[in-house]
Amino acid sequence: MIRLELAGLIVVYLLVFLAAIFVVWISYEMVRRFRDTHALRYRVKCAICGMEYEDRTTALLPRCPSCGSFNERNKLKGY
């Protein structure tokens, strides 16, 4: 059997608890970043009028619904 004093037992308990919180925090951040990038995948910003719109077609140059200009598919940054 492993013998620990009360102070050592408290330190081990706190380290395990903090490690569990850290793992939950990291996994939550990874899921949040995946959701954000997945939501911005089909977003296109018009270079002429500045309108952001969603285009799920496979066209290389989607047409802006507001002004009708063609736009490149650039990756939008998160807010």
Pick out the low-confidence regions.
none
Number of helices: 1
Order of helices and strands: HEE
Radius of gyration: 24 Å
Per DSSP E runs of 2 or more residues, the count of β-strands stands at 2
- State the shape: rod-shaped
Q: Report the span from N to C terminus.
A: 54 Å
Strand sequence of the main sheet, in spatial order?
1-2
Q: What percent of residues adopt helix (DSSP H or I)?
A: 40-55%
Strand and helix map with partners:
Layout: H1 6-39, E1 43-45, E2 52-54
Antiparallel strand pairs: 1-2
Tell me briefly what this model is.
The chain has 79 residues and is mainly alpha-helical.
Protein model, in words:
The chain has one helix at 6-39; strands at residues 43-45, 52-54. With 79 residues, it is mainly α. Strands 1-2 form a two-stranded antiparallel sheet.
Give the tags:
79 residues; mainly alpha; rod-shaped
